[in-house]
Amino acid sequence: MPVLSSTEKNAYYAKFATTSRLIACLVSEALVKAVYVPCADEEASNIKGLCLLLLPSKTSITGLQDLLAVVPLAGVPILDGSSFMINDIACASISLVDGWDMLPHIYSPTAQTLESVDTITLPPVTNAQATTQAVARKLSSLLSATVGAHQLVDGFDAVQLWTEFATDFEVNDKLMQLIAQELDSSMLYQAHAYNHPKMLPSLESSTVEWEQVILEGHATHPMHKARKSFAPMAPLHPEETNLETPKIRLLAIPKDSMQLRGDFESLSHSLVDIMLNKSASSNATTLREQWANHILMPVHELQLANIQHLFPDVYVFPETNHVTVQSLTSIRSVAIPDLFPGMSLKLCLGIKVSSALRTITPYSTYFGPGFSSGVVPHLTYDPKVLTIERELASAVYAHDDTDIAKHCSCVLREAVEYGTDNEDTIVPCAALVEKIQRPDTDITLVKHVWNLDTDEKRVDFLDRYIDLALQSFLPPALKNGVAFEAHGQNTLARFDKKTGQLKGFVIRDFGGIKVHRPTLLKTAGVDIDVLPDSCVVAETPDEVFKLLYHTLIHSHLQRLIRVLDLHYDGRGWAMVRKHLTRMVPKDHSMWKSFMEDEKVPGKCLVRMKIEELYRDYIYSPVPNVIQYRPSVVV
């Protein structure tokens, strides 16, 4: 077999990265039945077991025709304790399977009959042939029928799997195609990231360098790398679109067409002057006089097509007046540390990144500055451990239709990581759990940069991390009824630049927080100022705990526990329980949610796509990973 190029190899792993996430969602959201089959094979010792996915319409397995996919696993997934019978053999039902559980093979079972196994196209993965043959042997034994290796087509990609699932699930054709396009975009951009690796960061690296080293992104979202544009914006392609160092352009918008919060004009003054002074025939003073009745607002260059299409009274300054910026992990937020120190800009961007259109709604532009000035100073938290980056000002077009207004908006946010006197290494937490710019490795940046090459080092690092993370985010939720969206993209970790020791955390972005108003008013003496129907309002304290669990526990701490090899033996979760026991009173309602309930509401990323929801969430019961103990499988 000829040696495959790195491009072919990266394309294969890009398929796996997206498809494994799709499978994880289908299972956790109970859209398909998943069964665990232990698999001990001397010729493929890397396989712990198999994950068999049934087609949605199937309730039993009699042969390959009942299966959607077969995935060999490197670790035991989280089981629900019930049995599933296959030909009188008791197998275990799966509640949650993670991408990190999976080996890089996703097989599409087929009934095709070929004369020779030699016709199989092997993927660029070590021991691919041995793995495939081991899976075939196990399936033959399980199904009491001969399953040839040629009947397991490796490299099942997300679009193919989604199309087969959606057809069986009876998703309408239009939505099926739209979701397929987003999955295809995710694989395309994932391959591009693999093909263009970054220099590995160090403790000396800037926060921007850490922001842009994200290789795979969201750990469970199948559109984790999607960048999908919509007309009138031109289609995006990774080789042709610069999302890391884009230009920001300048708009002039009539004042009576804008809604401002905070002192937007004053805070943006220095940056706008820099942009105005780039004019060849005028200067900032003259141009400000000319546009005295207008708000001058920066905008992402890719958003101009939407601006010009939707807002005829907006003037776009010439390209001469641009500045080049550096995008952050979210892509729509940008920084210019040398020109705009101590601040970042959150800009609207009408493309889907993951599954959400990255515009900024009037709900967010209104809420953030008021919450920052009126509520943050009264919250219960330790400022030595947690830094809350306030949203100081915002601007949004005044339009009755919020779906139009959200395309012309901007938020000015504090950014201590881009200040002039910062002496810490400040790292987006999502970057810590990223691979070292290679798809075929389990070495992550946290292991590499912090030299966590022994079990003792990993245990010590994780224990301190969990302790400080819970010290940061539990008090506002416990005392004030406020849950920050503390996942790895919004949360940054502060490390001592010389020793690498964790000092605390930084939290940013208030668009997705939850606030139980009666609790806040009772404990802090203040209330939030929100527009009607704002999604930050929690009707019950449980909604606050639900968000904190999903962002901090499931999406944040779980990733670190897994990459530090402290998940399968349960030690990482024992640390979480230890610190929660110390910090959460047993008579507090959070204790039951976190420490007693075996199931918690899990955010349904695929169901939300099928129902075409964004601001409204769907939750499904998933295992409470805080209570995880190692599975015992016969």
How does this model look, in words?
The protein has 634 residues and is of the alpha+beta class. The protein folds into three domains: 6-169, no CATH class; 205-418, no CATH class; 424-627, Transferase(Phosphotransferase), domain 1. It is 34% helix and 21% strand. It contains 19 helices and 28 strands. The strands form eight sheets. It has a six-stranded antiparallel beta sheet with strand order 10-20-21-16-15-14. Helix 1 (6-28) runs parallel beside helix 3 (158-169).
- Tell me the number of helical segments per DSSP (H or I, 4 or more residues long): 19
Our measurement of the CA-to-CA distance between the termini, rounded to an integer number of angstroms, reads 38 Å
Structural class: alpha+beta
Radius of gyration: 25 Å
What level of helicity do the residues show? 25-40%
Mean pLDDT: 93
Number of domains: 3
The outline comes out as globular
The largest sheet, given as strand count, sense and whether it forms a barrel, is: 6 strands, antiparallel
Say how many strands there are: 28
**Spatial strand order of the main sheet:** 10-20-21-16-15-14
What share of residues are in beta strands?
A: 15-25%
Unreliable runs? none
